[in-house]
Amino acid sequence: MSKIVVVDDAYAELQLIEGILKSGGHTVTSYMNAEKLEDKLATDKPDLIILDVVMPGRNGFQACRDIKNDDRFKSIPVMLCTSKGQESDKFWGQ
Fold first, then answer.
1. What CA–CA distances, in Å, run from 72 to 4, 22, 24, 66, 94?
2. pLDDT tens string 29-54
3. CB within 8 A of 74, min separation 6: which ones?
4. Measured between alpha carbons, how far apart are the two ends of the chain, in Å?
5. Domains located in the chain, CATH noted
6. Comparing C-alpha atoms, which of 50, 60, 57 is closest to residue 93?
7. 24, 38, 29: which is closest to 66 by C-alpha?
C-alpha cells in the first residue's frame, strides 16, 4: 500500500485520519506541525501528503507551496484537509 504523511496540529484529527488510513492498509507517518517538513520528507519520500491548513507557525498553504516548488517533491500529490470554505480560502489554496 501507500506511504502517507499527515500533518495536523490537532491531535484528535491527526489520530482520526491516521486510523482511517491505517485501516486501509497504508503506512502513515504523522507530524503535529509543518516546520522542517522537507527535511522529514527527504528521509522517507511518501506517496501522498495530507496537510491541515490552519496550523500555528507554518500553515498548510505555505507548506504546500514550498513542497510544490521543490523539485524533489513536486510530483507528490498534496491534499489539503480543512474546514475552511470561504472563496478567499479557496483562492489561497490554488
1. 16, 26, 27, 11, 20
2. 999 999 989 999 999 899 999 999 98
3. 67, 68
4. 28
5. 1-7+24-51+64-94 (3.40.50.2300)
6. 60
7. 38
